[in-house]
Write a structure and sequence with these properties.
The protein has one helix at about 15-114, and strands at about 5, 10. The protein is mainly alpha-helical and about 110 residues long. A two-stranded antiparallel ribbon has the order 1-2. A hairpin with a 3-residue loop joins strand 1 and strand 2 (about 10).
């Protein structure tokens, strides 16, 4: 009780079912492998893209850090110069005040002597 395939040999339904099932499973496995490979490729591409972006961010960070350090150094130098100028001005002010005080004392003593 079989079906004849091209009239030469009889083929049973069980054999046909198992052959079609095996073909279908092989096709599913091929599709799964293809999908898995596509996924792996996309993950690799994304990983490369992320690493590239990470390098760009790191380079940008280093550039900004360098600029910041240079700006800080410049501002520290400027502050130091301003502190020196302020100290010099304060010293001159004290000298002028002392000279004025001495001059005022000198005039007071002259007027008392007269």
């Amino acid at each position: 009780m079989g079906i004849t395939d091209d009239g030469a040999h009889p083929v049973s339904l069980q054999e046909t079912y198992e052959q079609k099932r095996a073909e279908h499973l092989a096709e599913l496995q091929r599709i799964e492998n293809e999908m898995r490979q596509n996924f792996v490729n996309k993950v690799r591409e994304k990983d490369l893209e992320l690493k590239k972006n990470e390098k760009e961010v790191a380079a940008k960070y280093e550039g900004l850090r360098k600029e910041n350090n240079e700006e800080k150094k410049r501002l520290d130098d400027e502050r130091r110069k301003m502190d020196e100028e302020f100290a010099l001005i304060k010293k001159r002010k004290e000298e002028v005040e002392k000279a004025l005080a001495e001059q005022a004392n000198g005039q007071n003593t002259k007027s008392k002597k007269r």
